[in-house]
Amino acid sequence: MMLRVGTIIPVLGANKISFAGALVFAAGLGAIPHMPDAISLGAIVLIAGAAFGALDVAMNTEAAALESRLAKSSMSSFHALFSVGNLAGAGICGMLLRQDYNIASCLGTAGICVGALVVFAYRRSPSDPQSFQARKVGSSTRTSYNSAENRRLLLLGGIAFLALFAEGALCDWIAIYLVDILHTTESTAAFGFATFAGAMALGRSIGDYCNNRLGSIRVFRGGALIVAVSVSCTLSTGNLALVFLALFFAGLGISNLVPRIFSSAGRSQSIPSSVAMSRVATMGYAGLLLGPPFIGFIAQSTSLVTSFVFIAVAMITVASGSRLTDWSKQI
């Protein structure tokens, strides 16, 4: 769905795709707890996932177009709100469950909130957003583009794959590492994950300032290297305070990688921004999906410590591809 939506956005507009995708996703959230069997549950999850994929590509395409019009970095701020929303949603649902509300109430409330917010936003958005029209390149029916840009976009997608591979692996395996390797309590492990996730939100909130002041390539390369060093420090010490410090810096370092990659995808010179965004996002989220099970497979075959080495290597590779995020740089 993410690949297909890139060709639909130039026809219908990013705002309409965002509106439709968010509404379908909101309806899916509310419907999930009421499915009577596994088949219907699988169907509704599939539909909701496809809607969210379309929403993701459309939102990032429009955000990249707005960033281009502003002529300064702003993508990290949008992703910071995504991170804050994740934390807020988890916190609110946790409080509801603690007050003896069931999961149906949690998902239903979430669906209503998403639906209300998207209607509010859509009613105040331009019917024919010039921001996207300004970034649309060529005809929406074109199927072949500059071969050099195609290759560069493929490489950028590979960087997105590795960045989200590492992000997904860290999100899913940090707590398990703390419990199994450092023998902490589950509550301490949860705090370790919160440290990482909170640092990501913080990093994205200041990411645009850093990009505008220091340069986006420096921030991107430095962030990836900070993650690699932080993961290496985590593996080399048993001191819990140092591990938590390393997790904090890992969250800061990784926070602005994906926003910068998506921003770069939206600045493609000859390929329509929505098509470029859909390709890069699809490859990136493939990494997000494959990262955690790959780490688990390596951990089962060798050890969890060994599996984390792959995260550090992925980050070093991402850092080496930092020039791909700037279309003015030759590769």
From TrEMBL:
Q: Which terms are listed as keywords in the entry?
A: Membrane, Transmembrane, Transmembrane helix
Provide one Gene Ontology cellular component.
membrane
Q: Which InterPro entries match?
A: MFS, MFS_trans_sf, MFS_Transporter
Compartment list: Membrane
The protein's topology relative to the membrane is: Multi-pass membrane protein
**UniProt xrefs under SUPFAM superfamilies:** MFS general substrate transporter
Report TM segments.
Answer: 12-32, 38-58, 78-97, 103-122, 153-176, 188-207, 219-237, 243-259, 280-299, 305-325
Q: Name one GO molecular function term.
A: transmembrane transporter activity
Instruction: Report what the protein is called.
Output: MFS transporter
